[in-house]
Amino acid sequence: MSQSFPSFRVGLGYDIHAFADDRPLVLGGVTIPHARGLLGHSDADVLSHAIADAILGAAGLPDIGHYFPNDDPSISGIDSQKIIVRAVEAAGAEGYTLGNVDATLIAEAPKVAPHLAAMKERLSQSLGIPTSAIGLKATTNEGLGSLGRAEGIAAHAVCLLARLEY
Ligand code: MG
Question: I want to staple 38 with a disulfide (CB 3.0 to 4.6 A). Which of 17, 128, 132, 138 is the partner?
């Protein structure tokens, strides 16, 4: 099938991780002081996972579980910024450049607003786009359901990929 240029692709990512004791809380590559962290095979950075999946999805590629299986002991505790870098590289190999990312964290606790600027800075480095191309918001779940009971944190992300050349 012929493809017209430039071509644009939108991607959607979602992730959720449960809180656990004796874990650091890493969001957007930033370690945030909190009594509990998120449970996961990697550093459990739920925001970065949602963003990586948005990028991979936009490129029509498999999700991050394909690239980073959660039963692979060699990547136990992996820094999720490496997952983002891999996603950007994989999209790049398909000819796509990242335009922007927009994401929302759903967290009853802790308050993440004071850390959003640092998270944007860190994500900017991993994504290879300016902070002005990264939207980050945080909201609570208004006390509703498991997220409202602060049992974990969820994240939604969208991104735009552009393929500009033949
Ligand atoms: Mg995850």
Answer: 17
Reading phi first (left if > 0) and then psi (alpha if -120 to 50, else beta), residue 19 is in beta
Location of structure tokens 């990028």: 55
pTM of the model: 0.96
As a whole number of angstroms, the distance between CA 99 and CA 58 comes to: 11
Give distance in angstroms: CA of 164 to centre of ligand 1: 31
What is the Å distance from ligand 1's center to 27 Cα? 11
Strand, helix or coil at 124? Answer: helix
Distance 108 CA to ligand 1 centre (A): 18
Per-residue pLDDT of the chain (166 residues; tens, 9 = 90+): 566 778 999 999 999 999 999 999 999 999 999 999 999 999 999 999 999 999 999 999 999 999 999 899 999 999 999 999 999 999 999 999 999 999 999 999 999 999 999 999 999 999 999 999 999 999 999 999 999 999 999 999 999 999 987 6
Q: Where are any strands of DSSP class E within the chain?
A: 7-20, 25-27, 30-32, 37-38, 97-106, 134-139, 152-163
